[in-house]
Amino acid sequence: MTSISDINHRAERSRKRRRVGRGIGSGRGKTSQRGHKGQGSRSGSSVSPIFEGGQMPLVRRIPKRGFNNKSFADKVVAVNVGDLGLSFVEGDTVDPAKLTEKKIIKKTFDKIKILGSGEVSVKLNVIAHAFSKSAKEKIEHAGGAITVLPEKKPVVKNKMGFRKKSIIQAKSAKR
Question: Residue 12: phi, psi to the nearest 5?
């Protein structure tokens, strides 16, 4: 008897392709498992997964709700204190540019947060956007210094657009 631990994923990869339309004896002959007539029997047919035969699909019947902030939220990259201790020597200044240069950070980011996992024994001057409580304690205990980078100013949308300037000029001209 086979158990779940006996499953081999390589066996799944080498499974033979299903050969359809090879005669009545194959069990997949004649219509090649496409049925008789209709859109699905034609070559190149593919129907949208939400298509419900012409009736208003469920996706469109239910109202849209909520908001996802993922595309607007700041991308924060976490760096552990232990990684800094291994990658930098005594007295180094650790800033975002050096972290990307040493490939500790490999992806794009808006902010860097230093976390307290690991140990740091060298004195470092760390510059980042945010620090966890434990990271702050470990860096200062090793004799290092911390500098918090300022936040980016939020983008304020000018709702009146280009008209605002002309309205202000018109008002001042009347006086």
Answer: -65, -40
Residue 140: give its domain's CATH number: 3.100.10.10
Domain contains 55: no
State pLDDT tens for residues 67-105: 888 888 889 999 999 999 899 999 999 999 999 999 999
Amino acid at 10: R
Whole-prediction pTM: 0.56
Instruction: Give the sign of the dihedral formed by CA 83, CA 88, CA 91, CA 93.
Output: negative
CA gap 145, 123 in Å, rounded: 8
Number of domains in the chain: 1
Q: Could you write out the DSSP letters of every residue in 69-130?
A: -TTTS--EEEEEHHHHHHH--TT-EE-HHHHHHTTS--S--SEEEEE--S---S--EEEESE
- The single-letter code of the amino acid at 87 is S
CB atoms within 10 A of CB 39: 9
CA distance 76 to 132: 13
- Residue 144 CA neighbour count, 13 Å, CB half: 27
